[in-house]
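re the bet — no i am not wrong, look at it urself. input seq straight from the record:
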Amino acid sequence: MGDEKLRLDKYLWAIRIFKTRTQATSAIDDGKVKMNGAPVKASKQVALGDRYDIRTPSRKWTIEVTGLLHTRAAYEVAVKHYADLTSDEDRQSQQRLSASFFTGKRLSKTGRPTKKQRRDLNDLLNDDSDD
């Protein structure tokens, strides 16, 4: 098992850091994945004990490889193949950022009425005015 080869992009996809292997590859190519502060290539072979700093759109990770996972597995299985060493400071800042971030989307069923609701409302108001 020690001589198995596993690409970094495939590993990050398998442990569910990224949703697709393409996302993992492009993040690595953009320099968002680093090993010991240096950017790495998607084809880099993953070894037990490697530490990676990863920036995803949703958060910042620091992980240590504890097992090689060749295929994408359920979250419960995937978390057993790495140790999350992300500092509390990074976790706290990410929680504050996500709590204050507003996407601009309205919650469902709030805001302006739908066309049907507006028609019903107009019918209701017009009926009341006829009395």
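see?? Strands lie at 33-35, 38-39, 51-55, 60-65, 82-84. told u. also The longest helix spans residues 115-130. so pay up
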